[in-house]
């Protein structure tokens, strides 16, 4: 199935969507436009190529991975030691946050979520307009396996007991694998 991904245009508005999670449904139906108008997040819809059916959506915002994400400076230094040469050791690194990712209930099991993550990875490596090293997500516990399967790691252990955990994907993995 070919996918069509486009920035959400609110005319006509999305009037129905069900992914099985009321918070994710509500965001698309009632909040996404306000976030977009306030320049806080941009939402993209995913449809079948023939534009007949809404399969899902995702929202993106700017983010960073920084010292404040870690318990202490030592943990942050461990994180960046293997990723950056000394000259590039900054106090924060640019990232894009995957704020929301939802697939309609009737489209689950078709690997659309993984395809969307691949699309994002490709976009930020090959069409990166500002510099972006990481994709971050505050993943729900039930989605940990999905993100791990798609190459994401937990950022730290500060949130082990929480219902969501910060995970990241290092886009440089694609740069090094494509140059091999």
- Give the N-terminus to C-terminus distance in angstroms: 31 Å
Shape: globular
SSE arrangement, N to C? EHEEHEHEHEEH
Which structural class do the helices and strands define? alpha+beta
Percent helix:
25-40%
Radius of gyration: 17 Å
Walk across the major sheet and give the strand order. 1-2-3-4-5-7-6
Total of DSSP H or I helical runs spanning 4+ residues: 5
Say how many strands there are: 7
Show unreliable segments: none
For the biggest sheet, the summary is:
7 strands, mixed
User: Approximately what portion of the residues adopt beta-strand conformation?
Assistant: 25-35%
Mean pLDDT: 91
| Assembly classification | single chain
Detailed description of the structure:
This protein has helices at residues 22-37, 73-81, 112-126, 144-149, 172-178, and strands at residues 3-7, 42-48, 54-66, 92-103, 134-140, 153-154, 164-170. The two termini are 31 Å apart. With 180 residues, the protein is an alpha+beta fold. 29% of the residues lie in helices and 29% in strands. It is globular, with a radius of gyration of 17 Å. The protein has 5 helices and 7 strands. The mean pLDDT is 91. The chain has a 7-stranded mixed sheet with strand order 1-2-3-4-5-7-6, with helices on both faces. A hairpin with a 5-residue loop joins strand 2 and strand 3 (54-66).
Any chance you could write out the topology, listing elements then pairs?
Elements (H helix, E strand, L loop, with lengths): L2 E5 L14 H16 L4 E7 L5 E13 L6 H9 L10 E12 L8 H15 L7 E7 L3 H6 L3 E2 L9 E7 L1 H7 L2
Parallel strand pairs: 4-5
Antiparallel strand pairs: 1-2, 2-3, 3-4, 5-7, 6-7
